[in-house]
Amino acid sequence: MVYASPLIVLSSTKVGEGSLVLSTLTPAWGRRSFITAVGKKGGTAMFQPLSILETEVVDNPKSDLWRLRSPYAAEPLGGIRSDIRKNTMTLFMSEVLLRTLRDGSREEGLFEWCRRSILTLDALQADFSNYHLRFLLELAGALGFSPSLEDLAPFAGEQLSVLSRLLEADAASSLLIPMNGAQRNAVATLLLDYIGYHTDTRLNVRSLQVLRELYQ
């Protein structure tokens, strides 16, 4: 069977000279890995983390690793790919999704929420230094455990006040809450601990340190 499907790339791994194994988020199958052919002299640019693609999926009854063919970028994401700060933020976001979602897991509406989150970051012109914090709060909600201040208090430490402001603010206002790099790092770390607690996962997200250095 061949299915037309959008997907969001979480990570890619080169296999030999002509193939990539992609870990992806899809609307129909949740997190799922696929294999696809790429040119020997490149052709991997469209498979960067959080790229949004349209593809054809060819199932294989003999293998869980189905094949993708005819992929193309559904969204150019020029605002992200031309900005090192946004591009680094997508590395963080994709790593969080990769470490949080299990193969085969499917949360209703998660794909569309993730797609909107990517397109929102792509469109922002300024004041997006807090965007990954808003992303983590909304991810918790998308996974089914929307945090309250009471829920977060055991994880908050000295960041309870800024967490209260983040929770009370709407999406646009939350991006304007003043924080330095150390505060953002602390809030991101405690939100990762909170999500990890609820998903029974240890979220050691390596790209967080890069974000701290970029968003001082």
Total domain count:
2
Write the element-wise H/E pattern from the N-terminal end onward: EEEEEHHHHHHHHH
Helicity range:
40-55%
Q: State the strand order across the main sheet.
A: 1-2-3-5-4
CATH class of the largest domain: Mainly Alpha
> What are the segments in which pLDDT stays under 50 over at least 5 consecutive residues?
none
CATH fold label of the largest domain:
de novo design (two linked rop proteins)
State the end-to-end CA separation: 50 Å
Largest sheet: 5 strands, mixed, barrel
Which radius of gyration do the C-alpha atoms yield? 18 Å
Overall pLDDT metric: 91
Number of helical segments? 9
Structural class: alpha+beta
Assigned CATH architecture of the largest domain? Up-down Bundle
Tell me the strand percentage band. 15-25%
Assign an overall shape.
globular
Number of strands: 5
Q: What does this protein look like?
A:
The structure is a single chain. With 216 residues, this protein is α+β, with helices and mostly antiparallel strands. It folds into two domains: 2-73, Nucleic acid-binding proteins (OB fold (Dihydrolipoamide Acetyltransferase, E2P), Beta Barrel), CATH 2.40.50; 78-214, de novo design (two linked rop proteins), CATH 1.20.1440. It is 44% helix and 21% strand. It is built from nine helices and five strands, in the order βββββααααααααα. It has helices at 78-81, 84-100, 110-123, 131-142, 149-156, 160-168, 171-174, 181-199, 207-214, and strands at residues 2-15, 19-26, 30-37, 52-58, 66-73. A five-stranded mixed barrel has the order 1-2-3-5-4. Strand 2 and strand 3 (30-37) form a beta hairpin. Helix 4 (131-142) packs parallel to helix 8 (181-199) and helix 8 runs antiparallel to helix 9 (207-214). The protein starts with a strand and ends with a helix. The mean pLDDT is 91.
